[in-house]
Specification:
Elements: E1 6-18, E2 25-31, E3 34-40, E4 45-46, E5 57-63, E6 75-83, E7 89-95, E8 107-108, E9 115-118, E10 131-137, E11 147-148, E12 152-156
Parallel strand pairs: 3-6, 4-6, 8-11, 9-12
Antiparallel strand pairs: 1-2, 1-5, 2-3, 5-6, 7-10, 10-12
């Protein structure tokens, strides 16, 4: 799967309603640029199986290679959606053997209290190097690349 084509949209859920059928929901997310709608269906990975509700800070990822309707506000099919804590940031990227993101934007220092799981919630105990990771973090150093001790890492196997 080409996770490199996934584009994140972060914001706050304004509303959640029924989608086109009973197995889909539509979440309206308020971002700095306006409202973005996301269809959440059976194929959407909702990290930690969180119940999505208005007021929740989230990041939703869509596949930029999939077709989208030319409507306003924009509407995408969510591939991954995850709740965020406070001022938390996320990064979905391939990380090399030294745990540096492919674009050099972040370097990971994994601590003993960092939660490491697979996308389906199972504990992950193998090496994190040379894998696609969804990283949750709040602060970074001012070094190049910035370093962080992540709160949680989701391994996309």
């Amino acid at each position: 799967m080409a996770y490199s084509d996934y584009v994140p949209v972060t914001g706050t859920i304004v509303s959640v309603s029924m989608g086109t059928d009973c197995c889909e929901q539509m979440a309206a997310i308020a971002t700095g640029e306006g409202i973005v709608n996301f269809m959440i269906g059976p194929e959407t990975h909702v990290i930690d199986n969180r119940h999505l509700r208005p007021g929740m800070a989230v990041a939703a990822f869509y596949d930029s290679n999939l077709p989208v309707p030319m409507i306003f506000p924009p509407q995408y099919r969510a591939q991954i959606i995850t709740a965020l804590n406070g001022r938390e940031q996320i990064l979905l990227s391939e990380f090399n053997n030294n745990l540096v993101a492919a674009d050099g934007s972040l370097s990971l220092n994994v601590a003993g209290n960092t939660v490491v799981r697979t996308i389906n919630g199972q504990n992950f105990t193998c090496s994190l190097g040379n894998r696609t990771l969804l990283v949750y973090y709040t602060t970074t150093t001012r070094s190049i690349p910035p370093q962080t001790i992540p709160r949680k890492i989701i391994v996309l196997c």
